[in-house]
Design goal:
heterodimer; A: 487 residues; mainly alpha; four-stranded mixed beta sheet; 21 helices; 66% helix; 5% strand; B: 511 residues; globular
């Protein structure tokens, strides 16, 4: 029989490969398609990574920071093999592995199998709002490996092992996804926590000496990670670019995934449950947390409250703290349940069975995956492909559709897509002015010589274009409407 | 300093007002004599709406039962805040907008004066109590608006205080019933959020039941609280609408679309500066739970966790969360400092906060009355002594279409038919432009979803907006300059702009 960790891995994998999750992973926004297209272009042109933009007409030829080139290549390779389903498989494997690794870490740290599975499931529930086939799925895995390495060190591991682990993880993470900053923040929190321990241990020479050695090791590892993080195609420009983007209040307020969670949504229930777990653990279990653990809980809870996209990270980074606290305070019946699970766990040899089941689930069972035509302009794109002569010149498109159009209409360049950090605040403001029909709304259409638009049918801009003599309606269904300017 | 028992060793300050009174005075003067006055009445247009409704009730000597403010809705209305609307309107009849400011500032200052008194009475030292009250003020300030909601803040504090003291055995059941029951009658007529009081009692009742099952409190307590809940629920029916008020409020909360349409019912947006106070309070609570590790009763967990959950669901609950949780924070920190009084940090704290002084509550009371009367006289100067007002308070033309409204009043013939207005200006137009009825105002709980959907179709605008205009015979619009509908109307030959400035544009259908 497989172990509980293996079961957890398989169950998450199967859920993600089943409907409706499979479709949701690729179609919740246009970014899955966008990353696939960028990766595909790199494979086609053997230009790794891309140095200048070739996908938009608004920033065509402008230098680009490829902060996710490695994951885009991996997604593109999977896409070549199995289309959108390939993207789902990569993301599902990453997510399932993340939570299986977390579960294994909880068992190792707590030796309580009941608490370990409970906390792993709660963390998975909180994180599931962002289970999408995008490079940030790599960040989940990296975060799980990162916190494991840091906690091993914090619990008596060697500095050498920490340096090797975090050095390798930094090298991978910095080329896989811009979320590598999460690792930097976590390491910084441990550094601050250890500095606090040092300050509090002034009267205890043994504790003071231990804290000093730990702080020295963390400082060295942080410097190593900082140096390794420069090993990416853009060098230090990557860090400058990311910080520049995060400093833009306009863009972070504009992007839906940077918004605070809306707890009225069913999707946020998992996060609400996670916050309840945090509060109840602190209030009822009353764990003695080290300064590092306390700071980590506060800092990541703040980040998760600030931006919904950080919710999976708060679950991954703080779950081991709560697993340990809950295991220490577990009542006898939980310990008995844990012992019973442990007996099965220790005698289990189910890797082969799980492996076969996963291969069958991935490769043998038919999994058609496509962008749903009820949400995406699939029919409109088909119309454009059938009538290429009507669509000369530049397009103005709905922001959220940009990524899909990169993939579905590679012969046309978009006005904007999900690479908001690349387009920058001025262009996004221009897009907004036109899209929201501000007084200067025609300006962007004129400046970028837009000759056709592809927008949702109930979009306000369609109403304005319908009233202009030089624009006329070309195509419309319940999802999308196309207007074209008279030549 | 401590306002508690006098001590002969302490330095005397017979004429020194208490810290609580100082907080009241500083806050009251800060809100009435600075630009905060304008913020209180203009952060949204609801004060204007309440003023208009209150004026109507005073003029007609009856509570409003039929809506007569909008041209799109003619039907029954639920006057869930009639008493506070009359109160605010009566003040504004004497003092104009300054009357609103006077009531709002008094309510806000009294709220934090009471909170400070509570913390001191529970044994918290004055420096810590003042610090925590400042944090609570920072947290609540995002909802310092001259609206009936302020009555809820004050009453929620009183309910939470008395319930907490009942749990601690400091208030008898008799006193609890005698105070909370009439207050509930008052609350049910002052503001629609009177259910906050019932939620608080329910939390304490459930918590006490759990604690009783673990033998940490006597079972009689939760039985009394259940009876109190029933009595207060019955008392809340003493309002002009009776049980229909409950049905109306619950119906509103069941509609996801309506609750998310109103910003204050949405989850807190932690990007905004208004939420810094809440973040700081959450940080303090988390740090206290981690460092102090207080032993909590089930009631404590339910009250803090329950209101924490309600805060995440609706930003409107932020002030109540702050007022309810601050005494817990004060208790934990006080106990922590007492148990670590010999530690270096506590010694440093004691040295830095100085020695205790004897203060006079009489001096504090005199100071509060003097501040109130002085501001009242300043505000009433044109009525008493004539001449121009000293404290001018009005709705700013940078936020509301004041100039457009003046233009329409002086040129009433430029527009025909009914108005279509910007949602956030609805209350202002109810008040400032009574000659015309707006399309919508903030009372979304009353109109129902159909009208809200129709408004959104025209407001976005989406296909079908013309049908909405035709249905309601809309002949003119009053919208912010950057509103998308203006650009559509600009392109239509049958519409023309009749007024425009940097704040608002009026389009009228060509006659």
């Amino acid at each position: 029989m497989p172990t509980l960790t293996q079961w957890l891995w398989l169950v998450i994998l199967l859920i993600l490969l089943a409907q409706p999750w499979r479709t949701l992973m690729v179609s919740s926004d246009g970014d899955a398609c966008m990353h696939w297209r960028v990766g595909e272009y790199m494979l086609e042109t053997v230009q790794i990574p891309i140095r200048t933009d070739v996908f938009s007409h608004t920033r065509y030829g402008q230098p680009i920071i490829s902060k996710e080139w490695l994951s885009e290549l991996i997604f593109a390779m999977a896409g070549r093999v199995a289309g959108l389903y390939g993207l789902c498989v990569v993301a599902a494997l990453l997510i399932a592995t993340t939570f299986a690794l977390l579960h294994r870490q909880f068992i190792r740290e707590t030796n309580n199998h009941a608490v370990a599975i409970f906390v792993a499931l709660m963390a998975a529930w909180a994180a599931c709002t962002h289970w999408l086939a995008r490079p940030h799925a790599f960040s989940f895995l990296m975060a799980a490996l990162w916190i494991d390495a840091v906690r091993r060190f914090d619990r008596g591991g060697t500095a050498r092992r920490l340096a090797v682990s975090l050095g390798v993880l930094t090298l991978l993470w910095v080329n896989l996804h811009g979320g590598y900053l999460a690792g930097v923040i976590t390491l910084g929190v441990y550094w601050c926590g250890t500095a606090m321990e040092l300050a509090l241990a002034r009267t205890d020479p043994a504790r003071w000496d231990a804290a000093r050695r730990k702080l020295t090791a963390l400082t060295g590892v942080a410097m190593l990670c900082a140096a390794v993080s420069l090993l990416n195609p853009s060098g230090y420009h990557l860090h400058v670019h990311n910080l520049h983007f995060l400093r833009s209040e306009y863009l972070t307020n504009w992007l839906a995934e940077y918004a605070s969670s809306n707890f009225h949504d069913v999707d946020s229930r998992g996060f609400l449950a996670w916050l309840a777990l945090t509060f109840l653990t602190l209030a009822l279990v009353r764990p003695r947390l080290s300064p590092s653990s306390g700071l980590l809980v506060i800092v990541w809870t703040y980040f998760a409250l600030y931006a919904g996209r950080n919710v999976p990270l708060v679950a991954i980074f703080t779950a081991p703290i709560f697993a340990t606290a809950l295991a220490e305070a577990a009542p006898p019946w939980v310990r008995r349940l844990s012992d019973r699970i442990r007996e099965t766990h220790e005698t289990s040899r189910g890797s082969l069975l799980i492996g076969v089941a996963a291969v069958v689930a991935i490769a043998v069972v038919h999994h058609p995956t496509e962008m749903p035509a009820k949400k995406w302009p699939v029919d409109a794109v088909n119309y454009i492909k059938l009538h290429p002569e009507q669509f000369q010149g530049n397009m103005f498109n709905q922001y959220i559709w940009g990524g899909y159009l990169l993939h579905a209409l590679p012969e046309h360049r978009v006005f904007v897509d999900g690479r908001t950090d690349f387009y920058g605040e001025p262009l996004i403001r221009q897009y907004d002015d036109t899209s929201l029909l501000h007084t200067n709304w025609p300006q962007a259409l004129q400046q970028y010589n837009v000759s056709w638009t592809l927008l949702p049918t109930d979009h306000r801009l369609n109403l304005a274009l319908a009233l202009l003599p030089d624009w006329h309606f070309v195509y419309s269904n319940e999802v999308a409407t196309i207007f074209r300017k008279q030549p | 300093m401590n306002a508690a028992s006098p001590n002969t060793d302490k330095p005397t300050g017979r004429w020194l007002p208490s810290f609580s009174a100082m907080i009241w005075v500083v806050l009251f003067l800060g809100l009435t004599l600075t630009s905060a006055r304008t913020v209180l009445i203009s952060a949204d247009s609801d004060p204007a709406l309440h003023r208009q409704l209150g004026n109507w009730m005073i003029q007609n000597h009856t509570i409003v039962h039929e809506d007569n403010l909008l041209h799109t809705y003619h039907g029954p209305t639920i006057a869930k805040e009639w008493a506070s609307e009359i109160f605010f309107a009566a003040a504004s009849r004497c003092l104009g907008w300054n009357g609103f400011v006077l009531i709002a500032a008094s309510l806000i200052a009294t709220c934090f004066w009471l909170l400070h008194r509570q913390l001191l009475a529970e044994g918290c030292d004055a420096a810590l109590a003042t610090g925590l009250v400042l944090v609570a003020m920072l947290t609540c300030s995002m909802h310092w608006l001259a609206r009936p909601l302020l009555f809820t803040h004050l009453l929620a504090l009183v309910f939470a205080w008395l319930l907490r003291w009942f749990q601690q055995g400091r208030v008898s059941a008799r006193r609890l019933f005698l105070v909370l029951t009439p207050l509930m009658v008052l609350w049910a007529n002052l503001h629609g959020a009177f259910m906050t009081g019932l939620v608080l009692i329910a939390m304490h009742a459930v918590g006490s039941a759990i604690d009783a099952s673990r033998h940490s409190v006597p079972p009689a307590k939760y039985k009394l609280l259940v009876v109190l809940l029933l009595v207060c629920s019955a008392a809340s029916l003493a309002n002009p609408m009776g049980w229909e008020l409950y049905a109306h409020i619950l119906n509103f909360f069941r509609s996801h679309e309506l609750t998310t349409m109103t910003t204050e019912f949405a989850s807190p947006n932690f990007h905004t500066t208004g939420m810094r106070g809440l973040l700081f309070l959450l940080l303090l609570l988390a740090a206290a739970l981690m460092i102090v590790r207080p032993k909590l009763h089930a009631t404590d967990v339910l009250v803090i966790g329950g209101w924490g959950c309600l805060v995440l669901l609706s930003a409107r609950n932020v002030p109540i969360f702050a007022l309810v949780t601050t005494p817990y924070l004060a208790q934990w920190l006080t106990e922590f400092m007492r148990s670590h009084e010999n530690s270096r940090w506590c010694r440093l704290y004691r040295e830095s906060t100085g020695s205790e002084l004897v203060v006079s509550h009489t001096a504090g009371g005199v100071l509060m009355i003097a501040a109130f009367v002085s501001v009242l006289l300043l505000m009433a100067k044109p009525r008493i002594a004539g001449g121009p007002p000293i404290l001018i308070t009005h709705l700013p033309s940078s936020r509301y279409p004041v100039v457009a409204v003046d233009y329409l009043q002086s040129h009433p013939r430029v527009v025909h038919g009914e108005m279509f207005n910007y949602f956030l200006w609805g209350g202002y137009l109810d008040f400032a432009l009574p000659e015309w009825k707006p399309f919508i105002d903030s009372r979304t709980d009353m109109y129902g979803l159909e009208l809200v959907h129709e408004f959104e179709t025209a407001n976005d605008p989406k296909p079908g907006w013309e049908a909405v205009f035709a249905k309601y015979n809309v002949g003119w619009t009053l919208l912010p300059v950057q509103h998308p509908l203006n650009q559509i109307l600009q392109l239509r030959p049958d519409w023309q702009p009749v007024f425009s400035n940097e704040q608002a544009v009026v389009f009228a259908r060509a006659s």
